[in-house]
Amino acid sequence: MPNSLIQLTYASKVNRSTELDMEQLLQSARKRNKAENVTGALWLHGKYFVQILEGQRRKVSNIFCNHICADHRHGAIDLISVNRIDTRTFHDWSMAFLGDSMSNQQLILKYSSQDKFDPSIMDQKNILPLMYKMAEKQQLTATGFSGTH
Question: N or C: which end of the chain has fewer CB within 10 A?
Fold first, then answer.
């Protein structure tokens, strides 16, 4: 089923030995995702990236394997889940960007058993609702991105 929709979630450690230009990274990801009809959200929290990608299996796999895994800004990539989906959670966003904020910290406490975010010990079933709530809250307060990015 190469045309079936999937949702891929991964976490990685930010490679601090390379310069991280988030604006360039987001611009590039949004352009590629829009061209491939891939949606999702990227969260940068401390030393971790967490990203959810949604779209056709072949296109999401290509982006993950040939772009993300080859990107020197990522280290210790951990594939958290790949699931078939009927509908997209982040259908309005080619790449929502979720930054750190006090309200996000409160959400981490709600969805995690620890006060510090560590995707390797967080229950994977909580990552999607956590990121969705952060994106929803960010869009409602209109700070940081437009729902069409």
Answer: N
